[in-house]
Amino acid sequence: MALSGKLIGHVSISKKGDVFHDLFRHNPHNIVAISPDKVHDCELHEGERGVVGSVICWQYTHEGKKKSSKQIIEAVNEENHMIVFKIIGGDLVEELYKSFTIILHVEEKGDGKVATWTFEFEKPDTSVPYPTSLMDYLCNLIKDLDAHTTTN
Are 101 and 87 in contact (CB under 8 A)? Predict the structure, then answer.
């Protein structure tokens, strides 16, 4: 019996949503230069950068292990600074989850701005852990990127 799950993480940031939206949508390869200890490569496999239907492959280190994630851009909302990545290959869906989608959304909240990661996933059974470690990893990546963009 498969088990559906959802996990949400919020990170307060100093930059507007368009900065992160543009970075992840059109210039994800720049993340490699900003945070090389976490992200090692981001390659476009099909389509055009940032276009719905495009396929990208990330190489990264998580929990001390080199991993990969092949993703298709499923949806983009410029106005709401949102991008939806469906994982179609790599460690997450080949070893752990039956399906996995990652959504990045940046919005104004009170006096500040918040980057929100949302994971929607399907576990094959109860032995597969919730992806809390990956959520921590991506929230820390946002903090790294925010620190970099505030100094540049």
Answer: yes
User: What is the pLDDT, as a whole number, of residue 2?
Assistant: 65
DSSP 8-state code for residue 96: I
- Distance CA(117)–CA(8), nearest Å, equals 6
CA neighbor of 102 nearest in space, from 38, 149, 115 = 115
Query: How far is the C-alpha of 5 from the C-alpha of 119, rounded, in Å?
Result: 8
Integer CA distances (angstroms), 141 to 1, 45, 120, 124, in order: 33, 23, 19, 28
Q: Which residues does residue 46 pair with via DSSP β-bridges, in sequence order?
A: 55
> Can you tell me which residue has the tokens 């820390």?
140
Phi, psi of 11 (to 5 degrees): -135, 125
DSSP H/E element including 136: helix 132-151
3-state secondary structure of 143: helix
Determine which helix (DSSP H) or strand (DSSP E) holds 113, and give its type and residue range.
strand 112-123
Contact 9, 135 (CB under 8 A): yes
Counting as low any pLDDT under 70, the low residues of the chain are: 1-2, 149-152
What three-state secondary structure class fits 76? strand
